[in-house]
Design a protein that fits this description.
By secondary structure, the chain is an alpha/beta fold. The protein is built from 24 helices and 30 strands. The protein binds 5'-O-[(S)-butoxy(hydroxy)phosphoryl]adenosine (WT7). 5'-O-[(S)-butoxy(hydroxy)phosphoryl]adenosine binds next to helix 15, strand 20, strand 24, strand 25 and strand 27.
C-alpha cells in the first residue's frame, strides 16, 4: 500500500496558467465529465494541480491590502513584532510592553502588559462615527418575518442591559464561566459581548448539539449559569430548544456541576415556544428580567491581554471534547487583522457569513472580527436551502451584501439544489470565502463562476478551532487563486510539512505529510481548559525539538492535518490524519461516537469510520457487534443506536449507515481494524488481511456493505487511504 502511494505521488502534477477563455472551457469539460457519471466525491479527492486565477481588477483597486511588501513586513526576521500591525487595529486601555513572552513554552503570551476590553472594541469605540449604522442585520428563517436591524447604538444598549443582568441578577463576575446553548439569533452576540464586557468567559455550545453534549461542556467549564432560548426555526419548524436545557442541567448535575440559573431568551418576546415547564427559582425569561435593567450602563472592564475571552469546545481523538481557551488581546488582534486583510472588510461592508456562531468561524468571522472593524454583519437564522436554494441569493440581493462567506458543504448543497439560482438574482459579491474542509475544484468553479459571477475574489482559508483565525490563505488582492488549494501561509504564519520522523518535506516534491506551523501567532489558543498536559501532548509533543528550550523555533504547532505544498508555496489540505471525521466542515471524534454506541445495552463493540459523501464531505458509518443472544430484529437496535447518538451528541453526528456485523475484523491482539472497515465502506482495496485473527469475516462484511458484486474505487481518497492504520 505504501509503495503504491509513492508511485502515485511522485508524478509531479502539471502546472499551468490558463487564460479566462481556457478556464471556461475547462469548466465546461468538468461539468460534462460530471454528467458522464463522475461523482462529485470522486472528483473530490483526486484533483490535479489547478491553474491560477487572478482577482478582478475592480477588487484589487479597493482592497484593504494590496501591497505585496506585507509579506516582508511579516517575515521571520520581523517576528514577533510584525503582529503589532494587527494589535494596532484595536483600542488599548494600556499598551503592552512585551509582544511575545516565550518564557513558558508552549504557553505563549501575546501583548503582555496590555489591557483592553473586547466589547468596547467591538461596539463602544464605533459609536462616535457609526452609532446609526447597522452592526447586525438578523434575517429570520421564515421569509415573511422581517429582519431585525440592530445599529451600533442599539447593540450598545442591549449589551449593557444584559451585562447588568449577568452581573446583578445572575451574580457573575470577571473570570467566571457562563455557558450559552444558543442558535443563530442576535441574542447570542449580545450575550457574548455582554460577558466580554465584564471579563466573564463565555462558552457557547453549538445550538444543534444535544442537551447531554451541552451538559458535558457545562461540567467541563464549571459554569453555574446557562443561557438559552425557548425555540428557533430550522427548515420551517419552530424547534423546542428549552427542552435541551433541562437535559443539560441534569447531565451537568450528574457530573457534579450545579447550574444555579437558566436564563431563557424568547424567540418571540412575551410568547413561550417550548413545552418544557420553567423551573421555579432556576429558570427565568430574559425579556422579563430586562425590564429591570432598562437604560443600565456597565463600564467595560479593562482586561489583561492574556485574560481568557472564551472557550470553544472541539473534538479530539479521545471521547472527551477539548475546551480551546482563547485570549482577549491576541485573539482579537488576530481576528481584526485577518478580517481586514483577508476578508477585506471595510466599515461600509455588508458581510454575510453563513456559518454558525456556535463554531469558531462564527465567533471570529461573524462576531468579533467584523464588529471590531465596524462592519455590518448579517446573521441568518436558518438552513441555506430553506425554503429553496435561492434563499441566500435573495438575502444578498435585498441587503446588497458584498462579502459572502460559507463552507464547501453549503456550496455543494446549494449547487445540487439550485445550480442556476444565483444568476436569477441581482447581487454582486466582491469577495467570497470558503472554509472548513477541502473544496473540490469543480465545486470551487461553480462558486467562482455562478455564485461569484466572476466578479469576486475567493479565499480558501485553512485553520482550526484552536487557531483563532486563518493560517493559510491567499491575500486576495495580491496572490492569485488556485481552485482546491488554500494558498500560502498567512503573513506572519510559517507553515512547514514534516514526515512522520520530523524530516521536512520540500515544497514541490509531490509528497504529503503533516502540516505544522513553525511559530506562535496571536490567535493561537492558550491551552485546553483545565488540561494543560493534553494541550502540550496533542499539539506540541510530536515535533518538539527540545523540551527544555524557551525558543519558539523548537516548538512547532502540530495541526493534525495532512497536506501538500506545491512548488509555488500553496498548500493543499488533504484532511485529518487522526481519528477525527470532518462532517460538513465540523469535527466529530470517532471515539465520541463509539462511546455513545456503547451506551446501548445490546452493543458489544462499535467502530466508526468516515465515508465520502457528496454534500457533507465525510460522514460517519457505524459498525456494531451485538452481545450474544441479541438480534437486530426489524432494525430495532439500529434505530436505538441512531437515537442514542442524536441524544448524546446531536443530529450532526447521525451516521449514514449502521451495519450489524457478525464480528469485528481484529488483529491477533484483539484490536479492531478500522482500516479494513473504512476500506470496505469506501469501496477501496482492503489490502492484506491475512494476518487478522478472523480474516474470513472481512468478506462477509464486504458483502453485507457492498453486495455480492465487487466494485473497487481505483484510488482511495488521500485522507481516507490510511485511516485507522497503526501509527
Ligand atoms: C479542520 C478544523 C476553522 C474553520 C472551521 C472548522 C479542516 C478547515 C479547511 C480548508 C481544507 C480545512 C481541517 C482542519 N479545514 N479549513 N480551507 N481546507 N480543510 O474548524 O472544526 O476546528 O476543524 O477543518 O481538517 O483541521 P474545526
Amino acid at each position: 500500500m505504501k509503495q503504491k502511494k509513492h508511485t502515485k505521488k511522485d508524478k509531479k502534477p502539471a502546472y499551468k496558467k490558463t487564460s479566462q477563455k481556457e478556464e471556461n472551457k475547462t469548466m465546461a469539460n468538468e461539468i460534462k465529465q460530471n454528467g458522464k457519471g463522475f461523482s462529485e466525491a470522486e472528483i473530490a479527492v483526486h484533483w490535479k494541480e489547478e491553474e491560477l486565477i487572478y482577482p478582478p481588477s475592480t477588487f484589487v483597486a479597493q482592497a484593504n491590502m494590496a501591497d505585496p511588501k506585507v509579506y516582508e513586513r511579516f517575515s521571520e526576521k520581523k517576528f514577533p513584532e510584525c503582529f503589532k500591525e494587527y494589535a494596532d487595529m484595536l483600542t488599548w486601555d494600556r499598551y503592552w510592553h512585551t509582544t511575545l513572552d516565550t518564557s513558558n513554552p508552549p504557553f505563549w503570551k501575546w501583548f503582555v502588559g496590555g489591557k483592553l476590553n473586547a466589547s468596547y472594541n467591538c461596539v463602544d469605540r464605533h459609536l462616535q462615527q457609526y452609532k446609526n449604522k447597522a452592526a447586525l442585520i438578523w434575517v429570520p428563517e421564515p421569509e415573511e418575518e422581517s429582519d431585525a436591524v440592530i445599529t451600533y447604538q442599539e447593540l450598545f444598549v442591549r449589551i449593557n442591559e444584559f451585562a447588568a443582568l449577568l452581573r446583578d441578577f445572575a451574580g457573575l463576575k470577571t473570570g467566571d464561566r457562563v455557558t450559552f446553548h444558543m442558535p443563530m439569533v442576535p441574542e447570542l452576540p449580545v450575550s457574548m459581548l455582554a460577558s466580554a464586557r465584564l471579563g466573564i468567559i463565555h462558552s457557547e455550545v453549538y445550538g444543534g448539539f444535544s442537551g447531554q453534549a451541552c451538559g458535558d461542556r457545562i461540567q467541563d467549564s464549571q459554569s453555574t449559569v446557562l443561557v438559552t432560548i425557548d425555540g428557533y426555526y430550522r427548515s420551517g419548524t419552530l424547534i423546542d430548544h428549552k427542552a435541551n436545557a433541562d437535559i443539560a442541567v441534569k447531565r451537568a448535575e450528574e457530573l457534579g456541576q450545579k447550574i444555579d440559573k437558566v436564563l431563557v431568551w424568547r424567540r418571540h418576546k412575551g410568547q413561550y415556544a417550548s413545552k418544557s415547564p420553567m423551573v421555579k427559582g432556576r429558570d427565568f425569561f430574559v425579556d422579563d428580567l430586562l425590564k429591570e435593567f432598562k437604560g443600565a450602563r456597565v463600564e467595560p472592564i479593562s482586561m489583561p491581554a492574556e485574560a481568557p475571552l472564551f472557550i470553544m469546545y472541539t473534538s479530539g481523538t479521545t471521547g472527551k471534547p477539548k475546551g480551546a481557551q482563547h485570549s482577549t488581546g491576541g485573539y482579537l488582534s488576530y481576528v481584526a487583522g485577518t478580517s481586514k486583510y483577508i476578508q477585506d472588510i471595510h466599515p461600509e461592508a455588508v458581510y454575510l457569513c453563513m456559518a454558525d456562531i456556535g463554531w469558531i468561524t462564527g465567533h471570529s468571522y461573524i462576531v468579533y472580527g467584523p464588529l471590531a472593524l465596524a462592519a455590518t454583519s448579517v446573521m441568518y437564522e436558518g438552513v441555506p436551502t430553506f425554503p429553496d436554494a435561492g434563499r441566500p441569493w435573495r438575502i444578498a440581493e435585498r441587503l446588497n451584501v458584498n462579502i459572502f462567506h460559507t463552507a464547501p458543504t453549503s456550496i455543494r448543497m446549494l449547487r445540487k439544489a439550485g445550480p442556476n439560482e444565483p444568476a436569477k438574482y441581482n447581487y454582486h459579491f466582491k469577495h467570497m470565502t470558503t472554509v472548513g474542509e477541502p473544496i473540490e475544484p469543480d465545486v470551487w468553479r461553480w462558486y467562482y463562476y455562478e455564485v461569484g459571477k466572476k466578479e469576486a475574489a475567493i479565499v480558501d482559508t485553512w485553520w482550526q478551532t484552536e487557531n483563532g483565525g486563518f493560517l493559510c490563505s491567499t491575500i486576495p488582492a495580491i496572490k492569485p487563486m488556485k481552485p482546491g488549494s488554500a494558498g500560502p501561509g498567512m503573513p506572519g504564519i510559517y507553515p512547514v510539512i514534516y514526515d512522520e520522523n520530523g524530516k521536512e518535506i520540500e515544497r514541490g516534491s509531490g509528497r504529503a505529510g503533516n502540516i505544522c506551523i513553525r511559530n506562535p501567532w496571536p490567535g493561537i489558543f492558550q491551552t485546553i481548559w483545565g488540561d494543560p498536559d493534553r494541550f502540550v501532548k496533542t499539539y506540541y509533543e510530536k515535533y518538539c525539538k527540545n523540551k527544555n528550550s524557551k525558543d519558539w523555533r523548537d516548538w512547532p504547532y502540530f495541526a493534525g492535518d495532512g497536506a501538500m505544498e506545491a512548488e509555488d508555496g500553496y498548500f493543499r489540505i488533504l484532511g485529518r490524519i487522526d481519528d477525527v471525521i470532518n462532517v460538513a466542515g465540523h469535527r466529530l471524534g470517532t471515539k465520541e461516537l463509539e462511546s455513545a454506541c456503547l451506551t446501548v445495552p445490546e452493543v458489544a463493540e462499535a467502530a466508526v469510520v468516515p465515508v465520502v459523501d457528496e454534500v457533507k464531505g465525510r460522514v460517519p458509518v457505524v459498525y456494531i457487534a451485538l452481545k450474544p443472544g441479541y438480534e437486530n430484529e426489524g432494525e430495532k437496535i439500529a434505530q436505538k443506536i441512531v437515537a442514542t447518538i442524536e441524544s448524546v451528541i446531536g443530529k450532526i453526528a447521525r451516521p449514514k449507515n449502521i451495519y450489524i456485523v457478525p464480528d469485528m475484523p481484529k488483529t491477533r491482539s484483539g484490536k479492531i481494524m478500522r482500516r479494513v472497515l473504512s476500506a470496505i465502506s469506501n469501496r477501496f482495496n482492503v489490502g492484506d488481511v491475512t494476518t487478522l485473527a478472523n480474516a474470513d469475516v472481512v468478506e462477509k462484511i464486504r458483502v453485507l456493505v457492498q453486495g455480492k458484486d465487487k466494485v473497487i474505487v481505483e484510488k482511495a481518497p488521500e485522507d481516507l487511504e490510511h485511516f485507522g492504520e497503526e501509527k
